[in-house]
Design brief:
This protein has 393 residues and is an alpha/beta fold. It folds into 2 domains: 206 residues, 3-Layer(aba) Sandwich (Rossmann fold); 170 residues, 3-Layer(aba) Sandwich (Rossmann fold), CATH 3.40.50.2000. It contains 16 helices and 13 strands. Strands 3-2-1-4-5-6-7 form a 7-stranded parallel β-sheet, sandwiched between helices. A 6-stranded parallel β-sheet has the order 10-9-8-11-12-13, sandwiched between helices. The longest helix has 21 residues. It is globular.
Length: 393
Amino acid sequence: MNILFVGSLPPNPGGSGPVNCHILGGLAALGHRCRAIAPFTPDPATSDGSAHAELAEVQVRRYDVPNYLPCQDAVFRAPAYRAVERSAIEPLVMAAIREERPDVVVVGRESFLAPVLPLVSPLVIPILVISHQGNLPGQLIGGSLPESLSHELIEQLQSVQCVVAVAEHLAAGWRRLGLASVRAIPNAVDIDQFAPGTKTSDLQRSLDLAHDDVIVLHASSFKPVKRIGDLIDAAAIASQSNARLKYVLLGDGEEHAATVDACARRGLTGRFRFPGWVQRRQVIDYLNLADMLVLPSQSEAMSLALLEAQACGKLVLASDIPASRELIRDGETGLLFPVGDAARLAATILRAADDPRLCASIGEAARREAQGRTLKKMIDRYAAALEEVVHAA
């Protein structure tokens, strides 16, 4: 197949970029002709040359954006940003189609569909959209988006040939909104790259962490939906019972400054570390340094951080939401706690910190589960979905 992709790719941060990279690189490795159009933010904090290795067989054309977070967030958050992106995407898409008509266009995130659809649909080129945003169906069902914008997105998704959701619960949400051409292809993880390993002493020293500290890791884009404030509240409670708990928060975003300020107000600055965005190859070192990963999100599609932590044999503490329940059996392959319940989260952290055997046994079970979520299975399913779309066109 001749595939034209429009969407996020590394080195821009966020979960959809690495997932799209795996998909596109895997399709190219199967022998498909793959071209890509993707945003690029010239930020040294997020630049990672190693992230491009999977894209060696993919022709990637980049367009500059002033920052990446608006594109990473809710589809309708920044109209001015969308206008800038549209003006960059449109000529690149039309040039790519004129050079070589694709068999199918893959849109790598819902927010990229608006500029692509009016260009591609009149040419009768089928479109497959990858749905990464786990909170969108809920926002639409709950009416938290303006009605005009809700109708716009639903009409766009109804007009494409296939919507692939990266989790079963996300596909179910789209079906409840009346989308018929939806299938679920759950995210996967590179189980060879993300594997159990030893703690890196240099990293531990650079973070000023003692060898007997119990390290709680969190990784996210610091959006309100991630509920990082619940982790701060839980840390304030847990610190009264365990002085060895330390917290490492990877990532950046709109709530980063507020999170740092909240730690200071609560007298927790000495317990928290904020490395910011780190390169993809460094994430493995942080996971292997940690004793547990905590994800208190209000909603997720399918957290790549959760999958990668499980692949590294780590205990994951996650809010009890549909995305977490797809990956965690409570008490067996992870621990769940009610969304927004900081006291329960604190108790769960303390339980894990006081029981290394529990951490190890659940981590081992999680690793076995992760070994069934291989990149090959995911890529084969995407290839089959694309072939169906192309043959039906």
